[in-house]
Amino acid sequence: MNLLHFNTLDTPAAAGVLRPCLDVDRWIDSIVCKRPFASIDDLVAHAGLAAAPLSEEEIASALAHHPRIGERAEGGSTEATLSRAEQSTLTLGEGIKESLSAGNRAYEQRFDRVFLIRAAGRSSEEILAELDRRLLNDDEEETREVGQQLREIALLRLRALFESVSAR
């Protein structure tokens, strides 16, 4: 997406560009209303502020669009494409797959939601260590961590959407 073009889109079209990054209406509305942005850095900075903090309801809504870590997102949606790209660097040997699967099940039983972590820039071993560590969190701490992970993913996705055009 070209930033100059984004700045001129009507409200529903601009919201549609942002939704795959973080499906939270309050966040999307804040960004759309703040336009025009002078740079991608300005856009990302505002987006980071607008996403802090996310409410429990916003977290639950946003999580509906994220697959389990280690599972391939299906379909041709922008969200699925972004998710596949984020997890593409993970090396998932059989032992890692089994550990992730068991960890995902334990996490879902413990917190009643999918385990979410920013996969970009992390090894599968780091992700497993974080999964084990976060299983020890209380509900409040884990909700904060999930919100932070959602923000990190949203900002990476947002930057990727806009920088992919400017890099050409």
TrEMBL record:
Pfam families found in the cross-reference section: OHCU_decarbox
Record domain Oxo-4-hydroxy-4-carboxy-5-ureidoimidazoline decarboxylase: where: 7-159
The protein's annotated pathway: Purine metabolism; urate degradation; (S)-allantoin from urate: step 3/3
Any one GO molecular function term: 2-oxo-4-hydroxy-4-carboxy-5-ureidoimidazoline decarboxylase activity
Origin species: Paeniglutamicibacter kerguelensis
Catalyzed chemical reaction(s): 5-hydroxy-2-oxo-4-ureido-2,5-dihydro-1H-imidazole-5-carboxylate + H(+) = (S)-allantoin + CO2
Source organism superkingdom: Bacteria
Keyword annotations of the record: Decarboxylase, Lyase, Purine metabolism
Protein name: 2-oxo-4-hydroxy-4-carboxy-5-ureidoimidazoline decarboxylase
E.C. no: 4.1.1.97
